[in-house]
Amino acid sequence: MKLNSMKDLYVDVLKDLYSAENQIIKALPKLAKAAGSPELRSAFETHLRETQTQVARLEEIAGKIDISLKGKRCKGMEGVLEEGAELLEEDGDDAVLDAAFIAGAQKVEHYEIATYGCARTYAELLGDSRAAELLQESLDEEMATDQKLTDLAERIINPNAVESQSDERLM
To answer: Which of 46, 63, 101, 110 has the fewest CB atoms within 10 Å, i.e. is most exposed?
Structure first.
């Protein structure tokens, strides 16, 4: 795809998001199943439902501007999710693995936060206020998910991981 205009860039970013979100939809059930913590499992299941809604928003935007979102593979998300898939193959303490799953999930969230922010800004610049609103909704959800994962890690998951390995403290 040639990027000769801001609209071209905007469409490219929308396609990237669409591919990324669909990859995440395939990955989240595996993470939820592997999570040892019920709270973490619930967070992944909740985010799966949000992600499905985010895909629907992207489809609404695409329909309004008469574009297809298919045909692009988000290689950035593919790489981040490959790292996460490697964690699913690891053996280890459930609490430590849950801490690793959160770290991997937050990498995904940060990619999405950056990309939704760009897409929202492009929509605003191109005068599509409805698309900007929809993209902001998704951005808000991604930021909230990131915060929920941070809170979960700090309150439960990471302390449990340290406690389960109490004889291995560094100090």
So the answer is: 63
